Amino acid sequence: MAKLILNRLSKAFETGGRPAVNDVSLEVRDGGFLALLGPSGCGKTTVLRMIAGFEQPTDGSILLGDRVLADAGEMVAPEHRNMAMVFQSYALWPHMSVADNVGYPLKVRGVTGERRTSKIREALAAVRLEDYADRRPADLSGGQRQRVALARCLVTEPDVVLLDEPLANLDRHLRQEMEETFREFHARSGATMIYVTHDQAEAMALATDVAVMSEGRLLQVASPQEIYARPEGRLVGGLVGQGAILTWPAASVNERLLDWATLQQLLSLSHGTDCADILVRPQDVEIGVEGMPATVTSVLFEGERYSLKLTLGDDQVLRAFSRRPVKVGDAVSVVIRSAWRL
Amino acid sequence: MSRSLNRGNSQPRWLFSFVVVVIFFLSVLPLGRLAATGISSALQGGARELLSDPAVWQAVYDTLTTSFLGMIAAVILGGGFALLLTLFDVRGKTALGFLFMLPTMIPPQVTALSWIGMTGPSSALLKAIGMAPPLGSPQPLYSIGGIALLYGVQNAPLVFLSLRAGLLALPRDGVEAARLSGASSWQVLKDIILPLSLPGFVAGAAIAFVSCVGNFGIPAILGIPASIYTLPTLIYTKFAAFGPGTFADVSLLSGLIAILSVIGLTVEERVLRGRDYRVIGLSGQVAMFRLGNWRLVGEFVLWLAIFVTLVMPLTALVASSLAPAYGVPLTPATATLDAYREVLFRQAITRTAFFNSIFLSLATALGLLVVTVLTGYYLVRSKSRLAPVLSALAEIPYALPGIVLAVALILVFAAPISIIGISIYGTIWIILLAYFSSFFAVSLKPVVSAFRQLDPSLEEAARLSGAGFGRRLTDIVVPLVAPAAGASVILVFLIACNELTVSAILWSAGTQTLGVAIYNLDDSGSFNLAAALSVLVVIMVIAMMLVLELMAKRLPKGVVPWRS
Fold it and tell me: Each residue of B20-46: b (16+ CB within 10 Å) or e?
């Protein structure tokens, strides 16, 4: 197995308009679990479909190790890529039993008899569906269908496993269970996995690396911890984790992690300095007796705490948590313990 | 690892060439040849001679009159049925709809024969109940009015379908909003429903008109004895009296039919533009209006219409087939199955016809299926800009009246095929080719609907599993479109088995079809034999329609033509 490399990948569709994917370069290490995160229409699914071979890049190339899978001139057909995919709609064949669905890649590869049966049994056992081998997909629940689709990926030991918003059609309870199954699957198979999602919580929970896309461009690639702590730019800052983006006269400082003292100092010499965007996480906002005046504009009870929206004097909106109840309209004082310049 | 120039499409490169070749031979070549012959003979002055012939103008006039009156009859009958069945709470809708759709599947010459058996002085049915007009009085159907009436009965289902599809797609909430605004049932009908369903009315009328213009069976049986000729029957008689100018004349005449049809089809296309009603159709929608005390009256009118347009003619047909000879009164004592014995076991001609029709229909249905699965796959999956053009070209031969196509094929194949030097003119193979061309669209449509419903990811999953094109086709695609493919086979078989127009022009000794046999038997005066053969055909039609009706739940919407 080898590294999957996207090299200045672009895709423009014949319909015109801006390219769906624009100059995306990315390396996924062998055995890595990459989440492609972005709002719908950002091009993440097109990237995935190019990796699978369903779309051809209009520019750039895709490499697996030193083997070129696709460039603007030629490409290896999907059937010769040794990849597997879990589709958003699961794509189970309704006319085949669960075992036949799972065993189809083996059948195509000419694996027969006892070897095939035992491989199918193994794959179904890995997703805990041994007892369902003879059922039809139509008789299964959504989560079970999802697991059949996963077992079908497992059965041939593919180089790369692609997952296209696999949890989008499941309810919240099932999602958590399936997230666990995916993690297990990744650990067991050691395959390189690419996971497309618009749900940042899902991406952070599952992936070893997160790539954020918007309008066809790649904005940032980093580990979940890194991307949460040090996002680049407004779009990534707004997309990853909770937080409020404020405009602050912070363009002149070099540091990016700013504490309360620095923030106050910047505010006091505001005249003549350029403004910059800063990201403030709600857990870094303290409500107390001193600090900046703010007004509570909304309160949401979340069980362990209250989640607040506050309006500062200059109408900027800040998010905060509070342990004790507050009312809409209350005047409070806030201290921003730390902020990140985007 | 193999690298290919495959541009991310799921199809092999030969598929495109295959589709282009198929559509060229089935559509472009014959129609292009017809147009070329028509234009060149018009340029050589053949047109002036033909157009100065008063018989041609009489035929144009009669075609237009009968088709227009037939269209009006179809709109009244089909429109009334569609409104009553779709909007009101009458009982037995499924049965009524099925029975009302039957006439469109019964071959026109059989319809004509059964109506002749119901009226006129020699009617076995009228004689049996003592109501026959005196001998020597004229057969009232041998007239412009008679032809138009039967056009109406035959084509009312087309208006019914078109209007019903429109009515089913009506926004229910719009109707409910009008109700809440205080409109009465009548006002809702008048202000909301009728204006919104107008395109369905117009489209249905246009398509009924086109179908009337191209009809051959009805004017052949009702018109020729009274010397009333429509354009299709005029072409037929021109072929019968074959002469040096025949090819030029018939190509011009079929050009005229084609122009009339294109006008009608353009009207239909215009009013339906942007309305893909089959997709929006809400099945199992409850009736919008309650008839209350009028319900019994409404149901009585509907069943009466079925009785008059279907039950009575078919009873008359059965009666005629049981009568010992044309004009002999039918009583329990004289009733005989001789005619059936004759057509099934004694007459070599009818047995040949059975054999030919079944062979042709099976070969067409199964052969076309192979072609349409590949073509349909290409048309649905291809992102090429050519795909819609190819799809339209595939539709044309079926949209045009059969007689136009038959003439076109004769023009192509009258001379031996250039390279191999074999002539298929006069053999059964030219009929088979004509059927392939004519019913290509019939076979294609269910398969294309099934492909459109198929989630592309099912096939993508198979690709990633490592399956190549052929493998995916046999393992995944074909099993999944199998119900629609089955429906396509039955539909093509049904239509091909009943076909008369194409084979009437293309048959020769030994290659007659069932349609031709029925027509020839009637033409030679063996009315009871013609009736017996027709009864057998009707039984076959009903049986196959019932099979399709039973399959309908498993098929994509719009596959079974009489369900919407």
Answer: bebbeebbeebbebbeebbeebbeeeb
